[in-house]
């Protein structure tokens, strides 16, 4: 059945259901246990913990396991009860958790990387464990044998990872701001393409295999949507955060994107509308409005006996303009600009008041967020960060929908 969408007033905000405290250092990852009132956390204090909600309403650890090195990444496969924990020393350890979530048995160690593990994904169909690390590589290993199948190296350390289980395509974001699309084979891989658009390191990725959309968040405070399936190179820019975007999650049924930033910002973006693609910035030696030379245009400055001006760009039309021709600022949400940006004076006049209506809602998580994950079927979100606190949120008031497949009252 299709999703039924209800409009909600913007006064609605995420509801904090629980705060989980106990880690002695930053919490690297937190994952909600599907169909259970539980959460799994891994921290820089070298511990992995399973927290279950008790009758008192509080979460208490049912499992507390100390690792040999700080925990940097984690993946959990609920159907097989397998947990994979990446460490600062480059190793990934696999555990099997009991059905009552009160016991965790060690399975094997994977020598995946030579440095800190940054992201992990597990594919049950192929029994592959795929990971990225600060040793500038993506590796894929066989979980049956524990052996290495292949590695691919980048020029910068690999920071995040998404994987398409059906096509065996891996998306790897790196510290240089580039995203590489790889086709993984049993013992080799091929580079399909590279995506460049961010001005800072890639901090988070989300792949939607249904619409074939890739979302990337970066330290430049922005999010880009890449239309991989459309094959037209279409990209949409989203700017509304004031710090680096640490985590993103796309709700495919309702066409909404949830993003979290390091300063605690939580945003919900409406992607169920026809957005405009941000223009490419045009190059010119003089202002494309008044034709005054820019400061490097020595010849025109000499010929006209004028002092060169500083170059700017209109975010709406992309033209190179001087400060006198771009005195106005405006938001333009249809193009992803949720806060005021520089526009040329003529574009400012063309923007109507209704064009400035926000297409996202912004909320304050009130703690540092370095990692986020969602249980989409229940509308739950968990956030964690360097403040050592794990927060569990009810996002249904913000997402503003009821899904036939979930979001049931608990």
From TrEMBL:
WD repeat spans: 20-51, 195-228, 238-279
Entry's localization field: Early endosome
One GO cellular component, as annotated: early endosome
GO biological process: positive regulation of toll-like receptor 3 signaling pathway; positive regulation of toll-like receptor 4 signaling pathway
CDD domains according to UniProt: FYVE_WDFY1
InterPro entries: WD40/YVTN_repeat-like_dom_sf, WD40_PAC1, WD40_repeat_CS, WD40_repeat_dom_sf, WD40_rpt, WDFY1/WDFY2, WDFY1_FYVE, Znf_FYVE
Protein name: WD repeat and FYVE domain-containing protein 1
Organism per entry: Piprites chloris
